[in-house]
Specification:
Length: 162
């Protein structure tokens, strides 16, 4: 079985993330969406919230599973029998960081390759950090994130309070 991992911070998940995951799920028999837990970071959403949101949004896809993961991505790839990591590229500015990560991961585990998909141009300007900033000031991000994410952001930042 060909298994791919779609890793990310997903803080919060955006339409760009969902687009990349959906496309990965068309090409691989099983897709593991891995929500990275980094104790050194203070995310807006807990890992449980991020997993719950992604599970709700991707629930209709039988070959997609969502899980939180703390540790090296390559260790998860080994554990899940995944030979491929799928990442999205929005613009040239993503390439440098993504190539570094891909090469680092390939060096750590030669059984894994990173495949890149270019994001749908509709989402090429969308980032989790941009979404967070707009939402925190009470701006409308409903066109940029899945509905459950938008609802949670609206509840959290009602009135534009940060
Ligand atoms: O959404 P992001 O922030 O671009 O995702 C980055 C992520 C989660 C893919 C990356 O930080 C990662 O793989 N973290 C897990 C720890 C790890 O394996 N680090 C070495 C990667 S070079």
């Amino acid at each position: 079985m060909t298994v791919a991992i779609c890793p990310g911070s997903f803080d919060p998940p955006t339409n760009g993330h969902v687009d990349v995951i959906q496309r990965a799920a068309r090409h691989f028999e099983r897709v593991v969406v891995s929500v990275s837990v980094n104790p050194a970071k203070t995310p807006m959403l807990t890992p449980e919230e991020r997993v719950a949101l992604l599970s709700e949004v991707l629930g209709h896809m039988d070959n997609v599973q969502v899980e939180a993961y703390e540790g090296l991505l390559v260790d998860l790839a080994r554990e899940r029998g995944a030979g491929v990591i799928v990442k999205g590229l929005r613009a040239l500015s993503d390439v440098e960081r993504e190539i570094q990560m891909a090469q680092m991961n390939a060096g750590l585990y030669e059984g894994v390759d990173t495949f890149f998909v270019t994001t749908d141009p509709r989402w090429s300007f969308v980032s989790s950090s941009g979404v967070k900033e707009v939402a925190a000031y009470g701006g409308d991000v409903s066109a940029l994130v899945p509905d459950p994410v938008n609802r949670l952001l609206e509840t959290r930042y009602k009135g534009g309070s940060r």
